[in-house]
Structures are given as C-alpha cells and as structure tokens.
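Example 159.
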Amino acid sequence: MRRAVCPGSYDPITNGHLDIIGRASKLYDEVYVTVMINKSKKGLFTVDERIDLIRQVTSEFGNVRVESFHGLLVDYCKQRDIPAIVKGLRAVSDFDYELQMAQMNNGLTGVETLFVPTNPTYSFLSSSLVKEVAAWGGDVSHLLPDAVFDALSRRLREQ
Ligand code: PNS
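Predicted structure in complex with 4'-phosphopantetheine:
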C-alpha cells in the first residue's frame, strides 16, 4: 500500500489545496490529509470544523483519510507508516522554506518530500489571502469549494 500525507493548516481548505490532494490521490493508494495543530495560531475555523470541511470536499476521491495531529510531522509519518509528504509549490517564494522543511524532515527520519507544482490558476492562492479578501467583502467564491465558501461566509457574518 503506497501512502502519502498532505499536511497543512487548512484554515480553511482552498481549491489550491484540493488540486494538490486530488493529484496526490491519483499517485498514491492512500492519501492522508492531516491538519497539523499549531496551538499558538488561533484559526478562523476550529480543527474539527476544518476536518469536517476537508472530509466533505475530498470524499469524491475515495482514497483520502482526514485527521489532525499535534506534534512533529515526522512523528506522525512514523506512527502511520507514511514514507512520503506531498506539498504544492506555488512559486519560487515557497521554495526556500519548503526546502528547509523537506531537508530537516528527511534528516530526522528519512521521510521524503515530493513537490507538486501548483496549477497556475492557484499560484497566488492562500487561505490567509482568501480570508482577508473575504473579510473586506471581496468575491472569493471561485477560489473555494462551495461548502467552504458557504462556511466562510457564515463565519464572517457571525463575527
Ligand atoms: O498550511 P501550512 O501552514 O503552510 O502548513 C505548514 C505545516 C503545518 C505543514 C508545517 O508547519 C508542519 O509540518 N508543522 C508540523 C510541525 C513540524 O513538524 N515542524 C517542523 C517542520 S521541519
């Protein structure tokens, strides 16, 4: 069974994430989409809400499991016997930090990181930008799955 993980904050999942997860799901038998918990960062969505949204929008792939983890990504990979991390690269600006993490993770346990070039349609897309634009009333409906757009609109109205 070939396994990979697509880790992230997913606050919330965007069409850019979904593109990478969908592509990973074609390359691997089982793809874990894992919300890495960062207690020092307060999200717009709770970890359970993020998981619920990711489950809704990845169910069509059929081989995606969604969960959360608090700790080092390499420890998660060991626990689950996952040899590969799949990450999307949007632009050269992502590369420096992603390379550092990939090299650190590989040095720690030998886990490999595979970089997938993001679809150019989403090269500017991040959860933070989407939240900022939406908070100021900008239209982000084309950047998010419908269920996520609805959840984001509701959450911003509540605030
Ligand atoms: O969606 P993000 O916030 O860009 O994802 C970054 C994430 C969560 C994948 C990264 O910060 C991470 O792997 N965190 C888990 C803690 C860890 O292993 N840190 C050491 C990285 S070398």
